[in-house]
Amino acid sequence: MSKIKKTWVEKRDCDKEPLVKINPKSWSDMPKGIKMFIPTPKIVNQYVCNIPKGNFKNVKSLRKDMAVDFDAQMSCPMVTGISLRIISEASYEEHMLGIKKITPFWRVVEPSSKLAMKLACGIDYIIQCQENEGIDIQSLS
After folding, report:
1. Are 35 and 72 in contact (CB under 8 A)?
2. pTM for the complete prediction?
3. What pLDDT, on a 0 to 100 scale, did the predictor assign at position 56?
4. Contacts of 141 by beta carbon, 8 Å cutoff, 6+ apart
5. In 29-85, which ranges are E strands?
6. According to the model, what pLDDT value does residue 82 have?
7. Which domain holds residue 54?
8. Closest among 108, 65, 71, 66 to 86, alpha carbons compared
9. Helix %, strand %, coil % for the chain, to 5?
10. Residue 1: inside a domain, yes or no?
11. Does residue 140 belong to any structural domain of this protein?
């Protein structure tokens, strides 16, 4: 019996609970012992939707903002990255269905990032959306 694969929208909208736990070992940019926030795709989606039009927020700032709001020191880079992939793909999935109000993931995804290279929309779509909003990634570097 084959398993029915969830859509990106279903993955984004699933009911998971966020967690705050003590980071057991140093890894990525997080030292051992800090309070680490583990977000859900729904939470990451909310934060990205709240980035004002024409603005760009880098992933590290997004991780920090989410963590502070959940009484932690930093958000998990791995889970945040996975969640960003899910919300980006879900947004593009909705775009392809003709839905006009979608999550503006291009406000947090750099066209040169590893994430951008994986997305079904392609890098040109991200750049076009950023240009439409007057976002100039080069000037932010």
Report:
1. yes
2. 0.92
3. 97
4. none
5. 35-38, 74-75
6. 97
7. 8-135
8. 108
9. 50, 10, 45
10. no
11. no
- The Cα 7–Cα 134 span in angstroms is 31
Total domain count, the chain? 1
pLDDT at res. 98: 97
Phi, psi of 20 (to 5 degrees): -125, 125
Identify whether 36 is part of a domain: yes
Q: Up-side HSE of residue 35: CA atoms within 13 Å toward CB?
A: 11
Average pLDDT of span 113-121: 97
40 token code pair = 């859900």
Scanning the structure block, which residue is given the tokens 């590893």? Answer: 114
pLDDT for 123 beyond 90? yes
At residue 75, the 3 state secondary structure works out as: strand
Instruction: Return the pLDDT at 4.
Output: 86
Question: Dihedral sign, CA of 69, 114, 94, 103?
Answer: positive
> Which amino acid is located at 82 in the chain?
I
- Name the one residue in this structure whose structure tokens are 């070992």: 25
Closest Cα to residue 125, out of 89, 86, 73? Answer: 89
In a domain, 3, yes or no: no
The CATH number of the domain holding residue 122 is 1.10.10
Q: pLDDT per residue over 9-58, tens digit each?
A: 999 999 999 999 999 999 889 999 999 999 999 999 999 999 999 999 99
